[in-house]
User: Which sequence fits this backbone?
């Protein structure tokens, strides 16, 4: 993450503070959002001078209070990893994300068109971010031992002009609503309007992120 003394950090799910302990010595301020009240009690007992602890579900916590240029770190629980990531994509204030996911989801995020794991989450992240897998994390290092391997990904927001994220997300969701169907079936209104001529007989997983931007522009911008 390359922590700096001027950094403000959002830490998602700090747990017992293993990372918070080290990070708090290197950065300006940390907002630690933890939902487990027992872990919150443990964190508060440590009395960090530069850590604000929020007992909250990250999906409900008000992200608008974060300053411009915030860096975000976290080990995301598998069952809500995707909703958290989509929510982070919607805000434009962060400078870098460093997040740990189960390996399967990490591979979906960086998957390229044509692969079985390529889908909505791949497109959304690759359109709005430069993203890569930094390293893998073995299940054997966790206590208790995890059932799966994990991977740490870094994300940097793209600064070029991008589609409005909410309608673009809705478009991609609709395009993948029936994965094995051709695009002309999933985006029937656009097909009937003559917009999909180039892609109408392709399945959504065959279409690149840049091509989906083209489709979005033709539908929404004319």
Assistant:
């Amino acid at each position: 993450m390359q922590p700096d003394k001027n950094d403000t950090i959002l830490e998602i799910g700090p747990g017992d503070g293993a990372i918070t302990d080290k990070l708090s010595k290197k950065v300006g301020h940390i907002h630690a959002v933890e939902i487990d009240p027992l872990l919150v009690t443990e964190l508060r007992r440590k009395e960090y001078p530069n850590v604000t602890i929020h007992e909250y579900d990250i999906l409900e916590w008000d992200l608008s209070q974060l300053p411009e240029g915030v860096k975000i770190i976290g080990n995301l629980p598998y069952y809500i990893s995707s909703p958290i990531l989509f929510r982070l994509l919607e805000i434009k204030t962060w400078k870098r994300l460093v997040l740990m996911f189960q390996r399967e989801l990490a591979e979906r995020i960086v998957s390229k068109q044509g692969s079985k794991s390529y889908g909505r989450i791949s497109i959304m992240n690759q359109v709005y971010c430069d993203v890569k897998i930094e390293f893998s994390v073995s299940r054997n290092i966790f206590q208790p031992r995890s059932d799966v391997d994990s991977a740490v990904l870094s994300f940097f927001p793209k600064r070029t002009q991008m589609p409005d994220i909410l309608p673009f997300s809705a478009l991609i969701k609709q395009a993948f609503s029936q994965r094995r169907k051709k695009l002309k079936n999933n985006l029937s209104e656009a097909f009937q309007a003559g917009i999909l001529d180039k892609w109408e007989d392709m399945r959504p997983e065959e279409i690149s992120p840049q091509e989906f931007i083209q489709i979005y522009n033709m539908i929404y911008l004319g």
Observations:
- DSSP finds nine helices and seven strands in the chain.
- The chain has a mean pLDDT of 94.
- The chain has two domains: 8-157, 165-221.
- The beta strands are 8-12, 29-34, 51-55, 70-75, 94-102, 129-137, 150-157.
